[in-house]
Design a protein that fits this description.
This protein is an alpha+beta fold. It is 17% helix and 27% strand. The protein has a 4-stranded antiparallel β-sheet with strand order 2-1-3-4, covered by helices on one side.
């Protein structure tokens, strides 16, 4: 059936902050196994788009679906439990660790039932 391989679907998503339209009527989809990039200049709304998808913000309008289930409006921890995560630019990563180990720090989230053991 067409569309079965869609893992993420964003439909007419907008996020406004007062009169500022940070994201305005954005639609796209990502198929299972596909790699998609979101590019644009500073202030174009890329981070806000990811913040809406990951549940940091709720959309002003539009819908977000993950594996066919609607996730917009769910709290960030519920979306993270479904496997959607995001990272932030780290100005000061852990210098004594490899890139992989820096990325794996996020795997110590309570979702796995424990904290990182030292």
């Amino acid at each position: 059936m067409p569309g079965e391989d869609l893992i993420l679907r964003v439909e007419k998503m907008s996020r406004h902050f007062g009169g500022l339209k940070a994201v305005d009527n954005v639609s796209f989809h990502v198929r299972r196994g596909e790699i998609l990039g979101l590019i644009g200049p500073n202030g174009a709304g890329k981070t806000t788009c990811f913040n809406v998808i990951s549940g940091v913000y709720r959309p002003t309008s539009g819908q977000v679906f993950l594996d066919g289930s609607r996730i917009d409006g769910l709290p960030a921890h519920s979306i993270a439990a479904r496997g959607v995560g995001r990272t932030f630019q780290i100005v000061r990563p852990f210098g004594g660790m490899t890139v992989l180990n820096n990325v794996m720090v996020g795997l110590g989230m309570p979702r796995y039932g424990s904290f990182i053991k030292s």
